[in-house]
Amino acid sequence: MNKEYHSTYINRLLLLKELDKVIDFSKASNQLIIILNLYALNKFVSVSELIRITGFNRKTILDSLRKLQKKNLIVKKEINHEIHVALSEYGKEYMRNLLAILTPRKEIDDDALLKTAVRLALYNELNLSLCLYRLVTNIGMNDDRDIEVDALMPRSGCDDHKARIILASFTRNPTRVFRLYERRGRKCIKLDKKGYELLYKTYHYKAYIWSKTYRFLQKIFRTPWIIEMALKGNALISLLYSIPLILKHYGLIHETLPVLLIIMTFQIGFNTLLHYLKKKHNLF
Questions:
Q1: Residues whose CB is less than 8 angstroms from the CB of residue 100 and which lie 6 or more positions away in sequence, other chains included
Q2: Which own/partner pairs from 106-110 qualify as long-range (CB within 8 Å, at least 24 positions apart)?
Q3: Which of 204, 221, 235, 242 is the most buried (most CB within 10 A)?
Q4: Which fold has domain 3-102?
Q5: Going edge to edge, which strands form the sheet with 178-183?
Q6: What are the pLDDT digits (tens) for 59-88?
Q7: Which CATH number, 3.40.1190.20, 1.10.3720.10, 3.40.640.10, 1.10.10.10, labels domain 116-199?
């Protein structure tokens, strides 16, 4: 490492030490998450919106905001009889300094690149993490029925190898996320206590709690995934296009165009709604 890079790292460490004095990163992660969201939104945000975004309860949010205001990192104002908060100028400067530390150098020596084996390991870990997320969400949001292991794995994007790793790793203590059981000779799976703790932090569960529309669609289509809702919904709607032809064949209507336009308008509205839910709640 040359002297320029060495000096850069030393300066970053010193700056990080100063920033840690303001918000103790090891003990005040809630405060850090809140100001990260406020910095990204770059506007005044209501307490209710912060609860929805972060998933924290109201007491945690209010307690964290009180401490952040005491440190002059945020400012408050009342809009429509509700408290709204935003980063103060000092808070914005704090975040710019923090992000400057986390920003990588523009030029990276080949020697500093992660080794191929490390990159492959991280890639595999990410794949497993995504698979675990989909499993937890699928099971947790359909826990009113028995879910067979063999039927669940393919739907969650898990091949046999990943499925074996996840079942071996997360069905025993101290990392028990799933619990296996038998029902009528079938091997079934459900979430354990730690599994529900993970579920409550997912975007899909938060959308399920906050959006009556998403909750209704999830119950109708029996899936938390927007793409699967779109596929199932559009498949059902496509069947409706044959109704005007049948009605005309039996002489119940004279023109098919008005009915076709109604069905088409309904389909456009359905897909627009799914797009809105996906964007508003960060779903996939």
A1: 12, 15
A2: none
A3: 204
A4: Arc Repressor Mutant, subunit A (1.10.10)
A5: 147-148, 186-191, 178-183
A6: 888 888 988 888 888 999 988 888 899 999
A7: 1.10.10.10
